[in-house]
Design goal:
single chain; 65 residues; mainly alpha; 3 helices; elongated
Length: 65
């Protein structure tokens, strides 16, 4: 990971806010019918692949009732 300072992260957040409130950006968003609820599936796929590397059948799960 690159060395990013807190100041740079704050600057990025300010730039993001400026973009989100820009009327041109909002119009572009509407014009191309872009959803704000987009979910990148690659993280879930990678997590599933990592979990498949483990043989969980060798572990005993004890449930105290």
């Amino acid at each position: 990971m690159t060395n990013i300072t807190i100041e740079r992260l704050e600057q990025i957040e300010k730039e993001r806010e400026q973009t989100m409130y820009d009327e041109g950006f909002k119009q572009w968003f509407i014009e191309f019918n872009i959803s704000q609820s987009y979910d990148e599936p690659s993280g879930k796929i990678k997590a599933r692949e990592m979990m498949n590397q483990y043989d969980l059948s060798k572990y005993k799960y004890i449930v105290n009732l």
